[in-house]
Amino acid sequence: MTNTLNWLEADIEHSAPWHAENGTPPPKRVIIVDDTLNADTAHRLACEGNGLLYRGDFNNARLLLQALARRIDRPRKKPAKKAESPAQAFHLNRQSQSLRARVLGMVLIELEADYRIPLRRAPDVKAAYTQVLGEHHPAFVTSLRELLSVISAYEWRKKGVEIPEISGRIYPHYGVFSPIRGEYISLVAKAPLPSTELAFDIGTGTGVLAAVLARRGVKQIIATEQDPRAIKCAQENIDQLGLNTQVEIIAADLFPTGRAPLIVCNPPWLPARPNTPIEHAIYDFDSQMLRNFLNGLSAHLTADGEAWLILSDLAEHLELRSRETLLEWINSAGLAVIDRLQTKPHHPKANDPTDPLYQARSAEITSLWRLKLKSDISQPD
């Protein structure tokens, strides 16, 4: 999102374009701060909605951000009200994370037209920002938190994520969800293929599942995606893996034209409203993508083909969507479940009792649902 940030500095009015990937508007009030600002004062000012435009030493600005995070995360003197249900715990946790992001987003950094940061000991971020915004971009102001995430994404993109199932690496781009949860990838690598002729990969993201299918010998995979960054990311990954003769990346809203004997989809797992672009890979408001995928299969799956739906049951444990509702959607779409492959997630939060959603995360199961067009097949529980 681009808007204008205005501030007064040395009795002179200044303005610059505001850039926020998460779409947040610029702060209405801006205070010029430097290395003399202590963390308690910064915390108070940020909580009051003041943008803190930093002048001085970049490393000190980063230390200030860390100090703010510690103040936000420290236990309250008065314990927070205990959630009455898993769904309420989820929504309270999202509210808490949103407030945390808003306060931390108040530490601001100015970048010049060549992506140079005019602070002492500032890093060279030109290569990182060129990958996100292009070679030439006018001067702008952004949050230090976002700037650090751009740097982090650049490092991830350089080193990549090792994926054993493809005997190679996937290089996620900024704003494209990284395939660091490998359990769903292993399910796609193990499920019995109904055909090796053609497959559709719906919402391919980094292209990792299309790559898995190609490594398994599927001759042609058409992978669809809407987000321009994800399309570019997937294409680069497929190219560097040498799979571009098997995999075609196209821009499409869910399905390409035609029918396929295998259609794979890993939709966002939680039915909640995304607040930032990257959250579209996590949250599916009102389960719209999930339901549209299921309802569209009858027009795109061959009569003897299979659809693979990769889905966590975390939403069920959080009481955001029931198993009965999911099965009803499958049935109403004219589909039957022929099998369900399951695995437990291995991410750290599943084993962290201090996580607010630990009870749900510790019970979570990731499944690959094998679906066929409805016939006389009986559905398992």
From TrEMBL:
<protein>
    <recommendedName>
        <fullName>Methyltransferase small domain-containing protein</fullName>
    </recommendedName>
</protein>
<dbReference type="GO" id="GO:0032259">
    <property type="term" value="P:methylation"/>
</dbReference>
<dbReference type="InterPro" id="IPR007848">
    <property type="entry name" value="Small_mtfrase_dom"/>
</dbReference>
<feature type="domain" description="Methyltransferase small">
    <location>
        <begin position="175"/>
        <end position="312"/>
    </location>
</feature>
<keyword id="KW-0808">Transferase</keyword>
<dbReference type="InterPro" id="IPR050210">
    <property type="entry name" value="tRNA_Adenine-N(6)_MTase"/>
</dbReference>
<dbReference type="InterPro" id="IPR029063">
    <property type="entry name" value="SAM-dependent_MTases_sf"/>
</dbReference>
<dbReference type="GO" id="GO:0008168">
    <property type="term" value="F:methyltransferase activity"/>
</dbReference>
<keyword id="KW-0489">Methyltransferase</keyword>
<dbReference type="Pfam" id="PF05175">
    <property type="entry name" value="MTS"/>
</dbReference>
<keyword id="KW-0949">S-adenosyl-L-methionine</keyword>
